[in-house]
Design brief:
single chain, mainly alpha, two-stranded antiparallel sheet, 19 helices, disordered N terminus, disordered C terminus, transmembrane transporter activity, MFS_trans_sf
């Protein structure tokens, strides 16, 4: 305690310095940026249906037509169509801006979902289901648009971008955790088409709210002559890894729905996303990151857990296996998506990330169709062989992805030297 100019000043005792306030965590710092909470809220609403549409379609179609194979084939067709259309939608976003492209593209996709709903409700011919679900292919990559905003806001800050990628992956997993639960509840408690109807409404509402946040929207990139990001070194091999990873998700969803066979399917399937969400948040707070092959090795090691649970004949054992297996997926996706951002030219970021999502959707389509076929011929328990095999394939394909610094990164180091 001292006096200064007649004022009493309290000072800490010798040897006991005053402690500053605790620094905010990485996620609090992210959301403290101007406009971040607003676009995150809108994007969260828009992404929640991503975990609803597949489960809703499988429950709705299998209930009306009595065939898991048909349900898996229809969802696979819609995902395959999205895989073809999404890169073009993303290219339009890069050239004309998120707000100008995302809203009309979402309106078309929502109408496709409503058309599917009506076709199933009136028990229309099977080919109409494929046509209606294919119309949802214009759905914009809302997760990619959100990541592009973070990349623009925190360019030049690798630590913040790592936290942002982990946060976005956790949001993805949260949506795939809550989406199936909500879809299963709506389809069983209200009517079979309720999940698809609510999902379409949430998708359109969320995209409109997200697009309205113009202050954080990345500027429109000038037209580039570099061609597709597919030409970036290492990109084709990386997309093959994404495809195999998508097959893990697609097969796991259809097989788990068939294994649980009831309203509990949503909560059981959500446990995989719960494990992934928790692991993603922890991974984002870590000061050190793991390599892509290390993450894929962990996924290949943990993905057989649901198969072991199914071998016991216990749904609880399968649920626990899904929870454990999910812990490897978020770190893998965060690391892989960070690699995509690193090798994609800045002016093509939406397109580059959408190519990654497209590869995942293609893998999900193959996994869904193969899962439905396997379930009908050999039963759900044997279906869990598929995600385990797909995880092992992803690890094997990662050998083709260059492990060292990317060419443009090495060139930058040479120029600075």
């Amino acid at each position: 305690m001292t006096t200064a100019g007649g004022l009493l000043v309290l000072t800490p005792p010798p040897g006991r310095p005053s402690r500053p306030g605790k620094a905010p965590g990485p996620y609090r710092r992210l959301l403290a940026a101007p406009g971040a909470r607003a676009f995150t809220a809108g994007n969260l609403i828009a992404r929640l249906p991503m975990g609803m549409f597949g489960v809703s379609a499988v429950i709705m179609i299998s209930g009306a037509y009595g065939s898991y194979a048909l349900a898996g084939a229809v969802t696979a067709t819609g995902l395959a169509a999205t895989a073809l259309v999404a890169p073009w939608t993303a290219r339009l976003v890069d050239r004309h801006g998120q707000a100008r492209v995302a809203v009309p593209a979402t309106a078309v996709a929502a109408l496709g979902s409503l058309a599917l709903l009506l076709c199933v409700h009136h028990h229309a011919p099977a080919w109409t289901l494929f046509a209606a679900y294919a119309a949802t292919a214009t759905t914009p990559n809302t997760g990619g648009m959100s990541r592009a905003r973070w990349a623009h806001m925190h360019r030049g800050d690798p630590a913040a971008l790592h936290a942002a990628n982990a946060f976005e992956q956790a949001v993805d997993e949260l949506c795939f955790m809550l989406g199936p639960v909500l879809a299963a509840f709506l389809c069983s408690a209200l009517f079979p088409e309720a999940g698809t109807l609510v999902g379409a409404i949430l998708l359109f509402t969320g995209v409109v709210l997200f697009a309205a946040q113009r202050s954080t929207e990345p500027p429109v990139a000038p037209r580039t002559t570099k061609g597709s990001p597919l030409r970036a070194p290492g990109m084709p091999a990386l997309l093959a890894v994404f495809g195999a990873t998508g097959a893990v998700f697609g097969a796991m969803e259809v097989v788990t729905i068939a294994y649980a066979d009831g309203p509990v399917a949503g909560p059981v399937l959500a446990l995989q996303a719960a494990g992934s969400c928790a692991a993603g948040l922890v991974f984002g707070r870590a000061r050190r990151t793991a390599g892509l092959r290390t993450c894929l090795a962990a996924m290949a090691l943990l993905m057989p857990m649901p198969l072991l649970g199914a071998g016991t004949g216990s749904l609880l054992a399968v649920a626990c296996g899904l929870l454990v297996a999910g812990m490897a997926t978020a770190p893998t996706m965060v690391t892989a998506m960070a690699t995509v951002q690193r090798i994609t030219p800045r002016g093509q970021l939406n397109e580059g990330m959408t190519l990654a999502v497209t590869a995942i959707l293609g893998g999900i389509a193959v996994g869904s169709a193969t899962g439905g076929w396997t379930v009908e011929r050999w039963g759900p328990a044997y279906g869990y062989v598929l995600p385990a095999a797909a995880a092992a394939l992803a690890l094997a394909l990662s050998v083709l992805v260059p492990a060292g610094p990317w060419p443009e990164k090495a060139a930058g180091k040479t120029a600075r030297a």
